[in-house]
Amino acid sequence: MDLIAQKELPESEGADDHELCRAMGHILDRIGDKWTIMAVGALSDGPMRFNAMMRKIGGVSHRMLTLTLRGLEREGLLTRTAYPTIPPKVEYELTDLGRSLIAPLTLLADWAFENRPAMEQARLAYDKEHGGPAK
Amino acid sequence: MDLIAQKELPESEGADDHELCRAMGHILDRIGDKWTIMAVGALSDGPMRFNAMMRKIGGVSHRMLTLTLRGLEREGLLTRTAYPTIPPKVEYELTDLGRSLIAPLTLLADWAFENRPAMEQARLAYDKEHGGPAK
DNA sequence: CGGGATCCTCCAAGATACTG
DNA sequence: CAGTATCTTGGAGGATCCCG
């Protein structure tokens, strides 16, 4: 996509545009999904235990949180530390890589916060003009 | 989530945290999905026709592009202009609101671009340490 | 050319229950 | 408390065909 057009290697004639596009798509599929963002947000001010995250995020199933965290661990965005006590205690913490995501994500969150009214109003206008919410 | 914690209204005791969380989730569900980002990216340097977008994005089905564009129009991120010629010609263009999304999205894209190697390496390490890619 | 409708598939994700 | 396994289903999304 063009958002990264300026990053094309000079010698590659843009033929790899698709490559970059698809790579972006892949990464955005990962970091762009709801629970990932929630999880990174939850961990943004320090390590946290599994159930604490579940409560903090709210509305996420046990299973989905587990899968999301596995994925993030795999991508190197967070670390998982299990203390073999009874009962078990597992702490999750962002890595440097994960923390570096906070800044761009915060900007996006800011955008969302600031433009929520505009979007809602636009939606109302659209729904009024056309028949009903969707169709 | 905490990414927007600093934006809590002073008088609301954080009870609306869930509200904000869910609102964020909703918006991120919209603007965070793959095709939306692709579409905004495609339109980031000027208006474009439907089929041109399809070619530029690549890998998107006719139907999904239509639905995505409808959604974006509804949220006020772009405008749709149909010229009743034969054959028909329809142009899509970002609104000011839509254009204001480019900046934060570019930052995210930059992050993705810069950290792609790190993520791939982390994934390889993870897969080597544990058995196989997923399980 | 662009959009809608229809059909069909398939997988993401919730619920539940068991283990260490 | 944390994780895994199994089952089930809703709906996202592709393919296809027809219309203006």
TrEMBL record, chains A, B:
Alphabetized InterPro entries for the sequence: HTH_HxlR (IPR002577), WH-like_DNA-bd_sf (IPR036388), WH_DNA-bd_sf (IPR036390)
PROSITE patterns per the UniProt record, alphabetical: HTH_HXLR
Keyword field: DNA-binding, Transcription, Transcription regulation
Transcription among keywords: yes
Sequence ranges assigned to domain HTH hxlR-type in this UniProt record: 21-120
Name used for this protein in its record: Helix-turn-helix domain-containing protein
